[in-house]
Amino acid sequence: MKLKRAFVLTFIFGLLSGCSQPDFYDVNGNGISLQDLHSKPLIVNYWATWCGPCIKEIPELNDLAKQHASDLNLVGVNFDQPDESEQKAQADKMKIEFPVLAGEPSVALGVTIPQVLPTTYVFATGGKLIATLVGPQTQESLLKALEAKD
């Protein structure tokens, strides 16, 4: 009986240890782990509603996220970091179709908060920063940055 109980407790502990809290949440409340983000090349785009070049590049980023969903991860970060409901409203206003992180991820990603917008960080699979791109980007410029990782 003790052996069976020990087995059950070990099994339950194993299941619970596999459950971890997400590292981030998006503006829709979905949990996202850093490990999942780094399972593919990652593009992190900082934007703001008052930034004209940011507004200009959003359609390019939306298309890239759709066309390369199986090849890369793309997330946005609202530079101004308003409260969560305002972040969602602003992401909707900008017509952003990829996940927008609800919090500031710079420390977890090992980057600095940008001083110029838009700024896009490009990471290789596994999390190594391979490019910091300032100014509006295109699909072509982002894919070129990903190719230059070698």
Kindly state the number of beta strands.
Answer: 7
**Estimated helix fraction:** 40-55%
Q: List the uncertain runs.
A: 6-17
Q: Strands of the largest sheet, in order across it?
A: 5-4-3-6-7
Radius of gyration, taken over Cα atoms and rounded to an integer in Å: 18 Å
Strand content: 15-25%
Give the overall form: globular
SSE-based structural type? alpha/beta
Order of helices and strands: HEEHEHEHEHEEH
The biggest beta sheet reads: 5 strands, mixed
Work out the helix count.
Answer: 6
Termini Cα gap: 57 Å
Averaged pLDDT, please?
Answer: 90
Index terms:
two-stranded antiparallel sheet; 7 strands; 150 residues; 19% strand; 6 helices; alpha/beta; five-stranded mixed β-sheet
Q: In a nutshell, what does this entry contain?
A:
This protein has 150 residues and is α/β, with parallel strands linked by helices. The chain has helices spanning 2-18, 34-37, 52-67, 84-93, 106-109, 139-147; strands spanning 24-25, 31-32, 42-47, 73-78, 100-101, 119-123, 129-134.
Protein model, in words:
The chain is an alpha/beta fold and 150 residues long. The protein is 40% helix and 19% strand. It has helices at 2-18, 34-37, 52-67, 84-93, 106-109, 139-147, and strands at residues 24-25, 31-32, 42-47, 73-78, 100-101, 119-123, 129-134. A 5-stranded mixed β-sheet has the order 5-4-3-6-7, covered by helices on one side. Strand 4 (73-78), helix 4 (84-93) and strand 5 form a beta-alpha-beta unit. Mean pLDDT is 90; it is low at 6-17.
Question: How is the secondary structure organized here?
Answer:
Layout: H1 2-18, E1 24-25, E2 31-32, H2 34-37, E3 42-47, H3 52-67, E4 73-78, H4 84-93, E5 100-101, H5 106-109, E6 119-123, E7 129-134, H6 139-147
